[in-house]
Automatic annotation (TrEMBL):
The gene is Mettl27. It comes from the Eukaryota. It comes from Neopipo cinnamomea. This is MET27 protein. PANTHER family: METHYLTRANSFERASE, METHYLTRANSFERASE-LIKE PROTEIN 27. Residues 67-157 form the Methyltransferase domain.
Length: 233
């Protein structure tokens, strides 16, 4: 199956080395076509991340407060909603993406925030879970944001992160996993899951394809912020 015209170009543009203002403009311009483009790519990260969080929560999640970082058009919110999550807040650096997310009606609050340049809005320790799906990658959100994600998460709360394992993202993935490991070693959180997924999304070039499959691979990470509450008897 051939990818629709323009998908390769739009993906390449936002993952290129453009400066932040230009990259945000590209996302603004992409917002109208984003959902249909990622559907054509068979992008599975929102589904996989939401399923991982749903499995982690010990009770019905309706009252849990979640922050969807780099929320885009709301793909993660749609998946979380299917799992019973209702109290969803979102942030994104692109005004165009936020407009699309707002139209879903799934978020109780949406704010513009350029992660890596400014802190997340709101006080510390206010969310039961934080997600960053799709934005942790080369040319996107820097790995230095991890402490800020921890700051807004409640003790015992969950953080679900994803990244890609395609060749052009391997340097970033190594850097990310080093930072994840440092935070675990210092007792900031504990790792619950690191799930490698082969058919993450369709590759946009032969060079990015995993062993000629036509797809790239990716990984879902799930962490729990320390101190972790004791198990109930």
């Amino acid at each position: 199956m051939v990818l629709p015209s323009g998908v390769r170009e739009r993906v390449a543009a936002v993952h290129g080395g453009s400066a932040l203002p230009e990259r945000l403009r590209l996302y603004d311009d992409w917002a109208a076509d984003y959902d249909q483009d990622v559907a054509a790519l068979e992008y599975r990260a929102p589904h996989l991340a939401a399923a991982s969080l749903a499995f982690a929560f010990p009770a019905a999640p309706a009252g849990a407060r979640l922050l969807d970082v780099a929320c885009g058009t709301g793909l993660v919110a749609r998946e979380l909603h299917r799992h019973g999550f209702r109290c969803l807040h979102g942030v994104d650096g692109s005004a165009g993406m936020l407009e699309r997310a707002r139209s879903t009606g799934l978020y109780q609050e949406l704010r513009r925030c350029v992660l890596g340049r400014e802190p997340l809005p709101g006080p510390a320790e206010q969310y039961d879970a934080v997600t960053v799906v799709g934005a942790l990658g080369e040319g996107q959100v820097p790995t230095t944001v991890l402490p800020e994600l921890l700051r807004v998460t409640k003790p015992g709360g969950f953080l679900c992160l994803t990244t890609r394992s395609n060749p052009s993202n391997l340097r970033y993935k190594r850097e990310l996993e080093a930072e994840l490991g440092k935070l675990e070693c210092c007792g900031a959180w504990q790792k619950l899951l690191a799930q490698e997924v082969e058919h993450w999304e369709r590759a946009t070039s032969e060079e990015e394809s995993t062993q000629g499959t036509g797809y790239i691979s990716g990984v879902v990470y799930l962490y729990q912020k320390c101190p972790v509450p004791p198990l109930e008897d």
